[in-house]
Predict the 3D structure of the following.
Amino acid sequence: MPETTEDATFRDDDWYADALVDRHFVRCSFQRVDLTEATIRGATFTECSFGRVALNASRHVDSAFIRCAFRRCNLFEAEFVGCKLVGSTFQECDLRPLRVTGGDWSFVALPGADLRGVTFAGVRMREADLTGADLTEATVTGVDLSGAQLHAARLVRTDLRGSDLTALDPTSVQRAGALIDAEQAVVLAQALGFEIR
């Protein structure tokens, strides 16, 4: 059975380069914990809070952060592979350069986030809040953005090929140089009221 920890507070702990495997944390608080270069595999964090946690260069594989709150955390060069972050929120976090491959980030809140140059590939981001997020020169390919909030987002030179853009109002975003495929061009043309025959 995986080890489960509930309602605990971890403060100023040094977990540098540690491996957290098959651990379960429920309603735990992590404050100023150093998880730099840590490997987190098959772990689950439910309704946990992370404050000023160093997650830079950490690697997360097949793990879940459900309804977790990240505030002022450093995710510089962090990587998430096949992870579930449904309903989690990020506030004032350093998210560059973040790399996310696969997994489910639906209902994630990243309003106003600096996501320049990050990579989201093959990720489910249904109804994610990306209001005002800066995705300049980011790679957002094969991503399910259905129902996502993208108002006032910066999509300048963003690679959006293969992503679901049905929720995107092209007039409400900065989009100069954004890269889309032919199928997406039809969707966006229709969003602008064009009839395609």
